[in-house]
Design brief:
single chain; alpha/beta; 11 strands; Globoside alpha-1,3-N-acetylgalactosaminyltransferase 1; signal-anchor
Length: 343
Amino acid sequence: MPHHHNLVFMTLVVFGMVLSGLIYLVYTSTSHRYKEQRFCLKISKEHQENYLLQSPHGLSYNQPSVVGPDGNVVPLTPWLAPVVWEGTFDPTLIDSIYKQQNITIATTVFALGKYTQFLRDFLESAEQNYFVGFRVHYYVFTDQPEQVPAVKLSEEHHLTVLTVPSSNRWQEITLSRMARLEELIESRLVNEADYVFSLDVDTKFYGRWGVETLGRLVGVIHPGYYQTPREQYPYERRPESQAFIPSAEGDYYYGGAVIGGLVKDVHEVAKACREQLDIDASKSIEAAWQEESHLNKYFLYNKPSKVLSPEYLWQDFKPHTNEVKIIRFSQVIKNYAAVRPNP
């Protein structure tokens, strides 16, 4: 009998050891695989964040449509970036998602010379519609700081006035915007914000502009050209300019009144455009629509990760159209001769 007990005991010990070994092997391989998986996820996330939607020069493909043949708006670009229209997002849902991220949105506006007259309407309408309930920091570039109106800002909205020299040419004011944006990002925004929008001041908000507009790199479709054949876009057509785009190329015509995205990506845009502007200036060339021409060149070969529909950039003098159900942000009617320092 004792011999039989010993045999049973030894069998149980061996079985226990084998089972323990198997459990250990399964655990270590699972743990190792999980670590590997975590490592892969980390790599792919970094890869995703650095992923630029670059396309080569001279590539032949059909012009993207903003409105389909059935009259319905198109909610995606051919490179699968969302085009933000009314009805493509749920404000309650998207706000609740971004609320958890504790983000700051920097917003730059340039109000030089008589353009300071647009600041009150811009800021007061922004306070009603622009990233309501989120942290916003306005940076107002002006040569007349005393003309910046005292507008009541909501709790998490702040404003900083940055004084810059005056200019006798509106083109120079426009051309210097990219350089000033680049400098501001390097000196402050890299530490103070997550996203940045650079917006024209001679505008007004009429509806919600919220976190649905956030993305790595964001452009807006110009309201004047969203149903125009690309060969008729007002791109820079002189090959000697750095902003040159051949007539067979082009996606959308983007408005220079809105540039947005992650701070580091907007820095890339501003730096690239400023460099191209400097090269043109050294050859005494001024692109057809100054920095807007250079922005369109940049966006053609470095695709935005999100595109805003013309709801996010309208013009007050334009009649409503069937596809634009709501106007959120619009350029006000103005007498250029009265506000610009030169023709």
